[in-house]
Amino acid sequence: MGHHLKRVVSPKSWGIARKSDKFVTKTSPGPHNKNALPIVVWARDQMGIVRNMKEVKHVLRARDIIVNGRPVRHSDMGIGIFDIVSIPKSGKHYRILRDKKGRHVSIPIDEEAASSRLVKITNKTIVKGGKIQLNLRDGSNVITDQQYKSGDSIVLSLKDGEKNKIVGHFPFQTGNMAMIIGGKHSGIVGRVTECITVPGSLPNRVILKDEQSGETFETIEEYVVMVGRESPAIDRWGIEE
């Protein structure tokens, strides 16, 4: 069972039934982290696009599932928050987000919205030639000669001929809009009102205001992803209760 794990211990973020079958596919090493959702679980358990592993493999051989502009080849490849999943034959596109309970949800988007993806910069390094490598939250990286800082978000094109070209930038700073992707405020979009640097090993804190409810709340910097400036660049960021 090296490629499987027991459903009862699968990450809660997957949002799948835990007692239907004993085992479920384990995510392979790759994008995001161990909580990434295997594409087979997304297609079968969440979306109902296929009924079983045989159908998943058939769909993948036909290059019928595209993640971030590339056909998925392996059923255990993981997807995670802000990934763009497209089904070319049906013309449907989805952005993977998280709801208020921290579960992965698939938000329908149009073709234009599916032509780019948002990613958070976790850190950066200088590479050969003096260029800057931006290391991104999903495990990928991009080379640039422009200045960005850790905590910022960038928007990468998924269009043919300009894949991974930076086409947008949302700085991590007060006054800009951010989405919370973890903790008890998961799924909320708010305006950053204060960034608090905490000395020592404790995480930095961020205070935001939910402009819909007027509530002010605090979270850790790790859970904050910038999604806009004056207004959110993402049209829909949650699901109806």
Automatic annotation (TrEMBL):
> What InterPro entries does this protein's entry cite?
Rib_uL2_dom2, Ribosomal_eS4, Ribosomal_eS4_central_region, Ribosomal_eS4_central_sf, Ribosomal_eS4_KOW, Ribosomal_eS4_N, S4_RNA-bd_sf
Keywords, alphabetical:
Ribonucleoprotein, Ribosomal protein, RNA-binding, rRNA-binding
GO terms for CC? cytosolic small ribosomal subunit
* Chain ranges of the Small ribosomal subunit protein eS4 central region domain: 91-162
Recorded hits in PROSITE patterns, A to Z, give: S4
One record GO biological process:
translation
Show the GO MF annotations: rRNA binding; structural constituent of ribosome
Q: Which residues form the Small ribosomal subunit protein eS4 N-terminal domain?
A: 3-34
Family per UniProt?
Belongs to the eukaryotic ribosomal protein eS4 family.
Write the protein's name: Small ribosomal subunit protein eS4
